[in-house]
Amino acid sequence: MKKGIAILGSTGSIGTQALEVIENYPDKFDLQVITANRNADLLITQAIKHQPNTVVIVDESKFEQVRTALWEHDIHVYAGEEALAQVVEGNEIHTVLTALVGYAGLKPTLRAIEAKKTIALANKETLVVAGELVTKMARENGVNIYPVDSEHSAIFQCLVGDFENKIEKIYLTASGGPFRGYTKDQLAAVTKAQALKHPNWEMGAKITIDSASLMNKGLEVIEAKWLFNLRPDQIDTIVHPQSIVHSLVQFEDGSMKAQMGLPDMKLPIQYALTYPERYKTDFPRFNFMDYPQLTFEKADADTFKNLGLAYKAMEMEGTAACTLNAANEVSVQAFLEEKISFLAIADINEAVLNEAPNILKPVYEDYVKTDNVAREKAWELVKKFNK
Ligand SMILES: NC(=O)C1=CN([C@@H]2O[C@H](COP(=O)(O)OP(=O)(O)OC[C@H]3O[C@@H](n4cnc5c(N)ncnc54)[C@H](OP(=O)(O)O)[C@@H]3O)[C@@H](O)[C@H]2O)C=CC1
Ligand SMILES: CC(=O)[C@@H](O)[C@H](O)COP(=O)(O)O
Ligand SMILES: [Mn+2]
């Protein structure tokens, strides 16, 4: 039987690559739902080409455009945030790939878990914001969350065959981003264009800036805590500029396993959709002679404060990571709008994390409130830091 798939965020970097994966196996996957925030043109093109059952455009002002374009294609069209959350409940859907960016992923992911759908999770912010609630609900509903993020897919792949054995620690590899080796003085002058040039991966703007500021690795540390049920002291990071070793697990006996391959997100996307099977691909293969040296170095957490802030938020528990995530979404947006400097991103994140109240044992409404409060505070600081 074909597996019914919903892709939330089909117009993004992960979403478009997921469509390529699904297209390669027409006898295995049945595309049920695709969604976009505002990019109606691409959503329409994708719908006509891939023929899903349903599309959602979150921006309601684009509804008429999408509905008219898909009128004669027998595709259901909905608009708005609530539609995005509802659409994951469809009976024909087996797996929901959360490929949308930011806090907006939380609500539809929770709804998908309640509807007992398997989750292929790219949207790391969902676990950063509300990992405790999301993993609790997944356990209660018997739902599996399979990681798409390359590092977490690597850890998961290393654990296959070893689920019963104890992890001593994990190492998440980090490319170091475009500013690896920069001093604080050098960072003070970097531009948006430079920050958007990731050395190894082509990704959406938000995660690319997060990679440049090492916040991506910080978010991934928190994501790993929830995915693999680890203590903070079991999660380490190591800079590996080639992005070939995608991450490593060290077991209690001292043995280490690593997962390697060329940097190509189609592989972890596909594995999350096909686990426990591996389907044959024609993706380019790794050639040792192209990489005679794989190197490793310590992350510079003094210069790139965000990494330490993520560890701090993780140790604070409660809603602290939700606060940090909201501050970071605002500061990254402000940087992309060229309102603040690169260094102000971490300064704003730090100030908001230190000032916001931390609600322990949060329920869903506490995350909503925390996200709002932190965003408001962060926007105030953007005005202060305006360059
Ligand atoms: N790109 C990558 O290689 C990797 C990404 N990830 C994670 O995957 C997620 C997606 O990243 P990426 O594909 O790069 O992001 P993109 O910015 O490329 O795509 C984001 C997608 O989400 C949609 N979207 C944006 N905002 C909203 C919103 N408020 N409500 C609903 N939909 C929204 C966008 O729609 P529209 O096009 O209309 O704006 C688009 O479809 C992120 O959480 C990221 O951290 C993890 C590992 C690697
Ligand atoms: C492809 C992927 O998973 C990204 O999260 C990637 O890891 C970003 O690279 P950095 O290691 O530079 O954050
Ligand atoms: Mn990653």
From TrEMBL:
Catalyzes the NADPH-dependent rearrangement and reduction of 1-deoxy-D-xylulose-5-phosphate (DXP) to 2-C-methyl-D-erythritol 4-phosphate (MEP). It is an enzyme of class 1 (oxidoreductase). Pathway: Isoprenoid biosynthesis; isopentenyl diphosphate biosynthesis via DXP pathway; isopentenyl diphosphate from 1-deoxy-D-xylulose 5-phosphate: step 1/6. The gene is dxr. It comes from the Bacteria. This is 1-deoxy-D-xylulose 5-phosphate reductoisomerase. GO terms for molecular function: 1-deoxy-D-xylulose-5-phosphate reductoisomerase activity; isomerase activity; manganese ion binding; NADPH binding. Residues 5-131 form the 1-deoxy-D-xylulose 5-phosphate reductoisomerase N-terminal domain. The keyword NADP applies. Residues 145-228 form the 1-deoxy-D-xylulose 5-phosphate reductoisomerase C-terminal domain. Mn(2+) binds at D149, E151, E220. One of its GO terms (biological process) is isopentenyl diphosphate biosynthetic process, methylerythritol 4-phosphate pathway involved in terpenoid biosynthetic process. Belongs to the DXR family. It comes from Lishizhenia tianjinensis. 1-deoxy-D-xylulose 5-phosphate binds at K124, S150, E151, S175, H198, S211, N216, K217, E220. Keywords: Isomerase, Isoprene biosynthesis, Magnesium, Manganese, Metal-binding, NADP, Oxidoreductase. Residues 260-376 form the DXP reductoisomerase C-terminal domain. Its cofactor is Mg(2+); Mn(2+). It catalyses: 2-C-methyl-D-erythritol 4-phosphate + NADP(+) = 1-deoxy-D-xylulose 5-phosphate + NADPH + H(+). NADPH binds at T11, G12, S13, I14, R38, N39, N123, E125, G204. The keyword Ribonucleoprotein does not apply. Its EC number is 1.1.1.267. NCBIfam families: Dxr, PRK12464.1.
